Amino acid sequence: MTGLANPTHPYPYREARRRLAGAILDVGVVVGGWCIIAVLAGHWRPSPACGLAPVAAWVSMATMARRERTSRWPACLHPFLYGLVPVAWLGLLLALDGSPAPSSLLPAWGVWAAIAILWMGIGQRIIQARRPSLRLVTAGRREAIEAFIGRVRMSGTRVEEIARLAWDGPPSDGQIRELAQRAEGSFPDAVVLCSPRRDQGNWQALLAAMRRIPVPIYTPPAVEGWDVFMPGVESLGGADVVRLVGSNDSIGKIAAKMALDKVVAIAAILSFSWLFVLVAIAVAATSRGPVFYTQRRHGIGGRVISVIKFRTMVCDAPANPPAAGFDQPRMGDPRFTAVGPILRRTSLDEIPQFLNVLIGDMSVVGPRPHAIAHNEAFMDDIPDLMRRHFVLPGITGLAQIGGARGETRTVKRMSDRLALDLEYVHGNTVWGDIRVILVTGLTGFINSQP
Asked: pLDDT value at position 427?
């Protein structure tokens, strides 16, 4: 599978990042309320119950904002309604506290309320305006495609239709192959099959053509032959769909995993900063060339990413005869630098990939990203190989703690790794990620293979 690098992530990840940014700013406003009151109100120490007042006021205003579209009040009155909420909670705060409040409390509360109202009126709208567009490849009956896209747009989601295959009769094999090729080269967020069940033959041909492309495939349950209340119905851009192919990650779970990734990556970089320096000195002192090495590998959705590692091989070394079409390092490989085998056995060469996690190209836990040539060497023998790329690739994963790390020179070895990777794709959770991180920290750093 080939294609140009695409810096964007699939729609659920872009939407999760937007929501996470909004949540972080919301928390910042609430915490700011505590800080402003503590600083401007001087020595006054309210009761614990009063400490919940900024939280309650903010939740109240956020609830009002969500109902703003259906509110009967004129839009010009919304800022005044928001302003009444902090005033009401201030009165409750004083009533609950019972102790005399300093004269500076009212201006302190007013400063926080002004900031909160400004954020609610402007900041939230900026976050909302950054709602990502949904890049789709569609196939099926023309009227069903138009109806589905209309429902998505009515929900407020922008739609970018990359390719469409509309049919009234059975499409040709050439048309289906052309659609699959366009999907492979343009990295859509989803393929939507808008076709009734009586077109099952067309479905099978399209699903077979898309098998090597890690793009989720959905069908709207409103199309003839589907029951909208059937199990497995989820939302895509605000419209109900049934997932035929893809992972079951919700936007909320993606956002939680994203937050965990950033926290772990920052903690790892700060904790191992001294180790960064020592390894960099060792690499520079034992061989000529750059300290870091970047390799193009497949990321989520088959996008091409640049994975950062400490260099473990000499520069411009001749390649060994490739195994399975890809030249993998092996024990005693003469291309290793003096410290290369040590870095690989202890996985210290992987530490810079926490920078990939901060960038967003990788996760802490997920299927290990393979070199592009590595994947292409096994695609014909393992058609489902690219389905491991329905999620972000990781620094560690089930395969790494389950005994399937290291060289994969045979179809059997790669199939064993794929089984564990697909188990993760189908059932990953935040708590499962934490378990993998803990097990890796205890047992997973030492590797007997290069």
From this structure: 85
CA angle 257–125–133, rounded 5-degree value: 60
DSSP letters along 104-169, please?
THHHHHHHHHHHHHHIIIIIHHHHHHTPPPEEEEEEE-HHHHHHHHHHHHHTT--EEEEEEEE-SS
Per-residue pLDDT of 107-128, as tens digits, reads 766 776 677 667 666 766 677 6
- Supply the DSSP string of 345-380, one letter for each residue: HTTGGGTTHHHHHHHTS-EEESPPPPBHHHHHHHTT
Considering the chain, what percentage of its residues have pLDDT values greater than 70?
Answer: 68
Domains of the chain in start order, with CATH, are 11-129 (no CATH), 134-246 (3.40.50), 252-443 (no CATH)
Question: What are 135's strand-pairing partners?
Answer: 160
Strand partners, 92: none
**Helix, strand, or coil here: 11?**
helix
Give the chain's mean pLDDT: 77
CB 164 within 8 A of CB 192: no
Give the helix/strand (H/E) hosting 51.
Answer: none
- Helices of type H across 187-334: 200-209, 251-271, 273-286
Structure tokens at 273: 């900063």
Q: Are the beta carbons of 217 and 244 closer than 8 angstroms?
A: yes
Identify the pLDDT of residue 173.
83
